[in-house]
Structures are given as C-alpha cells and as structure tokens.
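Entry:
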Amino acid sequence: GLLQQRGRLLDLAGRTAVAEAAVAAAGIAAYRQLENWLSRRLGQKQAERWAQRLVRPAAGGVRWAELLPDSRDLLAVLEQHEAWPDAEPVLAASAAARAWRDRFLDAARQAGSAAVFAGPTWEEDPATVWQALRAAYERSGSAMATAQEELASDWALLLADLRHSPHWSYEGSSTVEIYDVRLVVLRGLISDSIDLLDRRERAKSALLALGGQVRRIHLELGRRLARRGMLQQALDVQLLSEAELRRATAEGAVPTLAEQSRRDRWMQRCAAEGPLPPVFTGRPPTPQHVASDGGSTLHGWAASPGLVSGRPVVLSDPHEDLARGDILVAHTTDASWSPLFLRAGAIALEQGGPLSHAAIVARELGIPAVLNVPGIVAAAAGAEKADVDGDNGLVTLT
C-alpha cells in the first residue's frame, strides 16, 4: 500500500516537474524580453540593473513572517529562548501556546522537503524552523519601506533615466506620461515577468511538498525494514535502489549489511568532496583551495541591488551559524538556506544567476546579492571585511 501511494505521488511529481519547467521557461523568456526592451533604450548594463530591481516575485516555500504569533507572551518566548529544546516545554504550558506551536510545526510539515525532492524535510529539524522564526521576528522589527513604496520609487527613478536617454523621445507632458503606449508596454512586460516567475516559485514549492510526502513513505519503509533487521537504521533505506526497495518489501531480500556500509562510506566520501565544478570530463577533479591575496575585487552577476559591508562568513551547510548582518558566502544555496538569508546582511555565491532562488529571496528581503562569483569561497576564507555591491555585481575583500 505504501509503494502504491508512493507511485501515485511520483506520478503527480513528474507532472508537476514538467509544469515547473514550462513555466520557468516562460518566465525567463518574459524576463529576457523586458531586458531587451530596456536595453534598446538604456543600454545593456542599465537594463539588467533595472530588470532586477523591478521584477521581485515572491519566493516560494515557508512564509516565516506569516507564522509569527500575535500574542505578546508568545513573542516573548521567541525573544527569550534561542534554542528549540528550551522553547518547546514553554510552548506546551498553555492551550494558546500549544495551538500556535502546532500551527507553525504543521506549516513546516506541509512545506515538505527543505531542499531537494524526497530529501530531508523541515519537520525533521524543528530547531532550524525555530531559528528561522526568530530571524523573521528580528527582521520584522527593522525599519524598511514596504514593497509597494519601493516599487513606486523605482518606477519614478526609471522614468527619470528614460527621460534622459537619447533613445527616448519624451514629450514631458503628464498626460503623455500616463498614456504613452511605451509605458503601457513596459508595465505589461514587468507584470508578465513577475507573474510567471511567481508561478515558477509556486510550482517549485508544490514539488517540494510532494517530495516531503515521498520522504515520509521512505522513512516508514526504512523503519519497518530496520525492525526486521534488514537495515541498521531507517535512514539507510536511501542506500537501496528502486528495484531493491521493491524486492525488500515483497521478498524480504536486501543487500548485505556490509554492502550497505560500503555504499554509505561512498556517499559520505562524495559529499566530502564538495560541489561539482560547472564543467568536467570523466571524474571531477579534486577542488583546489586558493588563499586570498587580500584587497581583491571579484566580479559576478548583480542579483539584488544595494551596497553592504560586513564580515564575510564562508558556510558549506545551511545548519551552520550566521550572526545577524554577516555576509553569507557559499558555493551555492537552495531553499533550505532561507533561514540564514533572514540574518545575512548580504549574499555572495560562486554559483547562481539573477533568476535563481537565492536572487529571488534576496530581492524579496531587500538584501544585496552578487552571484556567480568565481573563487569567492576561497578568497573570502582569509578576508576580514567584504563590500558587496549588488548594483554593479562586485565583491571587494580586505
């Protein structure tokens, strides 16, 4: 029965993945059309900058700020208890506290897999969910303009740039400004880009939600096989192939524990080698760690505007700690890194582009971000300060 349910989920996930790919292609096409429209009037560099500032789709996944309690007593629990094991018994002390605790844990459960389909889920790590809520609470108290105010300001600045462009014959009348067909077209391009990229994020969130259900089935099968002595622990179910999983449930036959241990060591060795290079032939080469030469300026893609200086912190795992205002430096990130984004002053990554999940979250939160910066991880390891220029795609390390 579990395998049948898993089959239905995988079928739905396959169709969801196709929908995600289709809407992602449409969203990227609309975004590039906006860039091309602007580049004919402002030049390529200005066009890229304005497209990134104007297109701010909402990132998918758990909406941490929406889970904050409205009770002063519960907010005090968030403030006073940094660790989840300390907060959990306090949240069990009253009916109101238990109701809120169940609501945010259920939201984490519904979100499904944190990063990859059928991978670890948010509900498996309530400590991370708690830290994300604390970070969202800290950020909610900061003085930031609303998204509508920021977009209105950006629109006014864009019109000023267009007026001064030699490629834009502008009459200067307010009536013409309102009804100029070019501005109608521009607003439509912006709206289409935001709408389609919003749909991409929602499709991605739906896929991860399905992945969480598949993960629960895998772990339940693993627990049953472990109770029968066929696996050492429930999580070892990930060491079985598709055919081996079906044989295990139907015939009670699995690879030997020695073979399972060999596979587990191989997986750990692969994980220790770090991320794969963008291009390689045959077996990926061993990563080369290059020391920072100090005072270097690295170039990347300007993914989210703004200029921030801070202490660069190189992280390799979303469960590592990051102080509020630090510069998050990593090879790449995914949805499971979102709690760290809430604390980061800026983001600098070796991989990713203006339409990646990191860029979308950074723009939604108003955090400067520069992505696709070759060598940033190695260079930042010995640096004391980083200046992240999200407008021009520069990271200066000292």
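The chain is about 55% helix and 10% strand.
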